[in-house]
Structures are given as structure tokens and as C-alpha cells.
Amino acid sequence: MRPIALSCGEPAGIGPELAAAAWSALRADCPFVWIGDPAHLPSGTPVTLLDDPARAVAASDSALPVLALPFAAPTQPGRPDPRNAAGVIAAIERGVALVQSGACSALCTAPIHKKALIDGAGFAYPGHTEFLAALAGCDRVVMMLASDQLRVVPATIHIALSEVPRALTPALLRETIEITAAGLRDRFAIAHPRIAVAGLNPHAGEGGAMGHEEIDWIARLLQEITGDFTLTGPHPADTMFHAAARARYDAAVCMYHDQALIPIKTLDFDRGVNVTLGLPFVRTSPDHGTAFDIAGQGIANPSSLIEALKLAQRMAASG
């Protein structure tokens, strides 16, 4: 068994305390090695400093395995320090190197704070996902939010709603569907994935009464796409996410951010996991941010990070 690499994320957020809580809950059942500055972990956290991640499996029973990465500054919960930006970036790079070399089975990333990275290190990427794609040399990756109840993939992500109709092209939607199908097959061990595609407009346009994209090109594109998967749609998004509908597909491809994220966060807010499909390695992340408002108080819920680590373990085993 190879451990999962867990990058520390923003040290002034809840990442360090969640790492300690996740280790306490999982231990040797799901061994991981935390990459960061051990001084940023909660006081009293049992730690084993490693120079070889292979030792993490044996060490996990008694202490949190740590690959120490010294940061430039101490941390104060809730107050990100741009001086630590280079360390946050280096932890991600180290995690990617470990999975690429085979020393770790998967990468799990704690939340980052993009402004601190920009201010402290001129970070040139919109977020984690784009940085990981660049490190892996990938032109296109897909964001999936996954839980035991639902998997969703937004075709467009962090753009204004007014920009979605222009950004949503046939090429983008086709690529999103094909990467999703490959990810379900290769990472989730679903031999013949079932994918449901939402319409862009209310009631999937209702025959053109509420929008024309479905008639103009979306329905035709879905008929043209073929592969070792079942594809249905475009479906009215307001009837796609009740229990009976969810039983008919393995993942839903949605047209924009909130169309995808509202259902999964309503159904399973604490256990949703962010998965990046299209990378040459497994990457998961908890589906929440740095939570500066509660950092250091010991009240942050570790459920999403625990689920992210467990899912990374399962996905690595499937691949």
C-alpha cells in the first residue's frame, strides 16, 4: 500500500487542523503523508517526520506522517501571510512529484487562498485545478463534485452567468462529456458509464419557448457523441436530481457552476469531494474553502477531507 500525498494548503485556514483530525479518524485504514510545516499543525498533534513517504504506512498507526517543508513565517489562524505563499506552492509541487514518481498513490489537496498566493508569489493560475493541469502538462481537465449520493460535472465553472452561453461551445461540451466518461470508467471502475446531460435553459428550453440552444445544437450534439457509455439529455435540470432520477445515471453533466453544485451541496454538504478528471494521476480535494472565520477554533468539520482521502484511495485502487 502506498500512502496518499496531502498538501497542506493555506496554513492560516482550517487545513492543518483538518489534517490532524483526518489522521485521528483514519490512521492506517487510509494512510497519508502530510506535506507542510509541522509548526503549523495544532499543538499536541502526534507527528512522525519522514524523509521517505514509504514509511508513512507503518507510521500511521501512532502518529501523523509528515514530510517537513519549512515555511517562511509562523501562522496565525484566520490571517494568511503572503510570506508563506511560496511554501504553499512548493507543497503542491512536492505532492505532484510524489504521485508522478509512484511514491504516493494519489494527491489530495487542502484548500488554498488564491489572493495570498498572488500577493506573495505572483501565482498566475485561477486556482488549484489549473495549476495541477499545468504541472501535469494537460491541456484540459474537468472538475467533478462527488459523494455517495450524486456526481456532478459543470461544463463551465467560475465565470459570470451572463458569459455561459458564449463559453458553452459544442467542442467544450463534447470534451467535458468524453473526459467524464473516461474518468468514470478508469477512476471509478464503472465499465459502461451512464451520463445525463442537463439543458441550459429552464425546462431544457421547452421546445424553444424558453431558449433555443437545446434545439439549435445541444440535442444534435448529444446524438452525435458515441462511445462506450450511455448518454441522455438534454434534461430539464429541475427534474434531474430527485432520488428516482439519480438512480438512472452515474454522473450528471451540467451547463454551469450553480446548476451542478447546488444539488450536491444540498444533498450532501459535508461529504462532497472535488475530483479532477483528465489528470494522469488521482487528485481529490475537500469541497470547501479555507474557512478563516473558524480557523484554529477546533470546530471545523473534517468529514469532507476524510471523504476526499477515502475516495482518493478507492480511485487509486481502481486505476
From TrEMBL:
Q: Which cofactor does it need?
A: Zn(2+); Mg(2+); Co(2+)
Q: Quickly give the catalysed reaction.
A: 4-(phosphooxy)-L-threonine + NAD(+) = 3-amino-2-oxopropyl phosphate + CO2 + NADH
Which domain of life does this protein belong to? Bacteria
Which Pfam families does this one have? PdxA
Q: Which residues bind substrate?
A: H128, T129, K265, N274, R283
Primary location class: cytoplasm
> Residues that bind a divalent metal cation, according to the entry?
H158, H203, H257
Q: Quote the EC number.
A: 1.1.1.262
Annotated GO CC locations: cytoplasm
User: InterPro entries recorded for this chain?
Assistant: PdxA, PdxA_fam
Is the NAD keyword given for this protein? yes
UniProt pathway: Cofactor biosynthesis; pyridoxine 5'-phosphate biosynthesis; pyridoxine 5'-phosphate from D-erythrose 4-phosphate: step 4/5
The miscellaneous annotation reads:
The active site is located at the dimer interface.
What is stated as this protein's family in its record? Belongs to the PdxA family.
Per the entry, what this protein does is: Catalyzes the NAD(P)-dependent oxidation of 4-(phosphooxy)-L-threonine (HTP) into 2-amino-3-oxo-4-(phosphooxy)butyric acid which spontaneously decarboxylates to form 3-amino-2-oxopropyl phosphate (AHAP).
What is the protein name stated in its UniProt record?
4-hydroxythreonine-4-phosphate dehydrogenase
